[in-house]
Amino acid sequence: MESKIFTRLLIFGAMNTAAFMFSQNTENDTITRGKAIDEVVVTGNANPKASIKTSTSISTLKMKDIENAAPRTTAEIFRTIPGIRSESSGGEGNSNITVRGVPVSAGGSRYLLIQEDGLPVMQFGDIAFGTQDQFTRFDSFVSRVEALRGGSASVFASNSPAGIINFITKTGEKEGGSVTQQMGLNYKNYRTDFDYGTRIAEGTYASVGGFYRIGDGPRKTGFNSNNGGQFRISLLKKFDRGSFRVYAKFLDDRTAAYMPMPVSVTGTDSDPKWSSLPSYNILTGALQTINLQHDRTLGNDGNIFNSDVSDGMHSISKTIGAEFNYDLGEGWKFEEKIRYAANNGQFIAPFPASVSKGSDFFTAANFTNFGSAVYAGTNTTVDMNAYYMKLALFNVKLNNFNNFVNDFNISKKWSNVKMNAGLYKSTQNINMSWMWNNYIQEVSDNNARLVDVKNASGAFITDQGLLNYGMKDWGNLKRDYNTKYDITAPHAQIEINATDKLTIDAGARYDIGKVTGYFSGATVTYTSRDMNGNGVIDIPEQMVGSNDNINVPVNYRYGIFGYSVGANYALNNKNAVFARVSQGGSASADRILFSGYNYTNNDDPALDAVKVNKVNQVEAGYKLRGAGYFLNTTLFYAGTKEANYEATTQRKTENKYQSLGVELDGYYRISKSFDVKAGLTYTHAAIKNALDPTIIGNMPRRTPKFMYSVNPNFNMDKLNVGFYLIGATKAFTQDNNKLIMPGYALVNPYVSYQVMKNLTVSVNANNVFNTIAVTEAEEGSITGGNGIIRARTLPGSSYSASVKFDF
C-alpha cells in the first residue's frame, strides 16, 4: 500500500517538474481569472503579501467564482477549495468541515474556524447544535473569501490548527453597489441581496448590505422552512497614518435542518446499492412534515415549553466590531481588532432513532403489550408493509452563545526582518437546553403522517404520535449547559528575508484556557405531569422526562502550545518552493461534558487526556506562475490525537489518526475566451490508536482517498457559460471499515448573459443529473440489518435564476 502511495507522489512530482521546465520559456504575466491567487492575502500571515511569496497554502474566492458555483448554503461555498471536505448535506448549518484528512469524529469543524474580517464567528467550530456556519451567511456584502489550509493557522488563531476560512467584507472604498433577485425554478426560494458603498467625506467611507429570503429550500418540508435575512453596515475612516473602522451585523434567519434519512441499501457492505424507498425520495425528501409542526415538552426549568418545528435552525446574531491600525513611525505599527456578538436561537429537527417495516416495527419488543396502531387523528389501521420511524425530535434552545474577541498586535520592521507580537483574548458562552421528545411517524416525503399506538386493552400509549416526553431509549437527554470558555493567547511571529530569494518565518502561540460553569441532566429522572391539559394523566404523561436539577460544576484549565516554522524559496519570478512544520491544537468544549470526568480536578489524568485535541503537521510545496496558468502543489502530513463523546450513540472515543497526501490547485487559460480551474486532493489516512482495538489500522470514517473539482469556463463578450464538476471517491460510513459510501461526481452548470452594461441574467443548476451523493451514515454495516440505513445525502437537482443590477 505504501509503495502505491509513493508511486503516486512520484507521478505528481514528475508532473510538476514538467510544468517547471515548460515555464522556463514562458513570459511572465498576471492572469485575470486567477488573479486572486497572486493578490495580497491577509489571512494567516503576519505580513500580508502575494501568495507565491508565502510558505502557506491559501486560495481566494472572488464574488464571481462564488456566484457561478451557486452555493445554496454557506458550507457549499467551500466545496471547490482543494484540501477542504465540506459535508453540506445538513442544510444552512450543522455542516461537517475538515481539512486534508484531519478527522470528522464529531459534528461541525473541530479543527477549522470560520472568520469574518479576521475574527472567529464562534470560538469553537464543533459546538453541538450551535456550529459556526449556523451563524454565518454569505451575501453580496462579502468582498472575497480567503481559505488557508495547513499548520500556519496554529499561530494565527485559537482552536483552528488545520485551517481558517475568512469572509472579508466590503468597506465602501469602491463606489457603487448591486441588487440581486434570485428565484428557485424547481423549488420555492425567493432571495434578494443588496449592497452599496460610497465615500461620504474626505477619507470616510460607508457601506451597507445584506439579504432577505423566504421559501422551502431544495427539500420538501411541507412549509416555508427558510425565512429570514441579514443586514450589515460599515463605516471606515482613513487618515495619514492609519485607519479606523466600525461595523455591525444583525442576523435573524430560520432554515431547515436535514438529519439522516431512511435509505434503502441492498447488496453487500463492499458492493452496496444505495437507493430511495418507494415512499421516500432521498434527493428531495425531508423528515419534516406539516403533521408535526408543534412540539410541547417539559422545559428544564420545570415549565411547559412550546416550539414551532418550522423554526428549524433559528439563528440570531447581533454583532458590533471595530478595527484600528496606526503607523507609529520608524517601522513600528499597531493594530487592534475587537468584536462582540450576542448569539442565540434554537435548533429543532427530527432524527430517526430507528426505522423498520411495520410488521417488524409494531411488535411487543418495541411496544410493551402492543395491541394495534392507527394513523394519528383517524381510525385507519396502519399498513404493516410500509416503513415507520421512532423519531427523536432534537429540540435545543440556544440560550446564550455570546462571544467577545479582541486581538491586539504590534509589529516592528527592519530592512530584512519583521517581528510581530500580540495578545488574543476571547470569551465564549455555551448555554443551551436539550428538551427532546419521541414520536412515531411513517416514512414518507409527502406530508408524512404521525402514528398512534394502542395497547392490548385498547388504550392509547401515544398522544397524536408522541410516544415519550423525553428520549427514554437514550437515557432521557434532558440536559442543561451553562459554561463559559475564557481564552488568553499571547503570540509572536518573525519573518526574515534571508536573501532576495529565501524567506523564513516562525511563530508561536500559547492558549491559556479557563472553563467555568455547570451542567445538569446527567442522571435519568422522570415525573408525572398533565402535559396536554386535558385533566387526565395519559400513558405518555406517566413518565415525563425531566432535568435532574443536579448541577455538576465545571472549573478547569488547559493550555495549548502551538508553533509553526516555514520557509519559501523563489527559484525565479515564476517558481517557488516552500516547506513548513507545525504543531497546534483545539480545546474540547461541550463535547466532553456528560462523559463522567471530574471537571474540577486539573490534576486528573483522565480529564487531562481529553481537554485538548492535538495536531502535528508537515507540508512541502511548489508554486508555479506563468502567462495564463498557475499550479500549486502541496505534500502534507497530519497526526491528530483527540477525544469525543457522541450523543446519538452514547459512545466515548479517544483516537489517534494519521493522514498524508498531496493537494493540487491549478488554472490554465487555453484561449482568450476559454479557461479551466481544477483542484485535486489525495489522502491516505489511518487510525493509529483507539479505545476500540478492532479499528486500529482502519481508514477513518467518511474519508475519501480522492476529492476533486473541475471548472471549465467559456467567456465571450456578454456570455459566460461553464460548469463545476465536484466529486469524491468511495469512503467508509464508520471506522469499522465495512459499509462503503459510493463515490460521486456532481455536475453544476451555469450560464449568464449581460443584457446591458449594468444588468446580468443568470441560470444555475446544482446536481443536474440527480446523483446520489452520500456524505454520512449512522450504521457501519448492512449485515444483520433490515435493508435500511440512516444516512444524509446531498440534495438532488435544483435550478435557480437570478437578475443582478449593478449601479
From TrEMBL:
Organism field: Chryseobacterium endophyticum
Subcellular location: Cell outer membrane
Keywords: Cell outer membrane, Ion transport, Iron, Iron transport, Membrane, Receptor, Signal, TonB box, Transmembrane, Transmembrane beta strand, Transport
Topology with respect to the bilayer: Multi-pass membrane protein
Pfam families: Plug, TonB_dep_Rec_b-barrel
Top-rank taxon: Bacteria
UniProt xrefs under InterPro entries: Beta-barrel_TonB, Beta-barrel_TonB_sf, Plug_dom, Plug_dom_sf, TonB-dep_rcpt-like
Domain annotation TonB-dependent receptor-like beta-barrel: ranges: 291-768
PANTHER family for the chain: CATECHOLATE SIDEROPHORE RECEPTOR FIU, FERRICHROME IRON RECEPTOR-RELATED
This protein's name: TonB-dependent receptor
Molecular function GO labels: siderophore uptake transmembrane transporter activity
All copies of domain TonB-dependent receptor plug, residue ranges: 53-164
Major subcellular location class: membrane
UniProt family annotation: Belongs to the TonB-dependent receptor family.
A GO term from the CC aspect: cell outer membrane
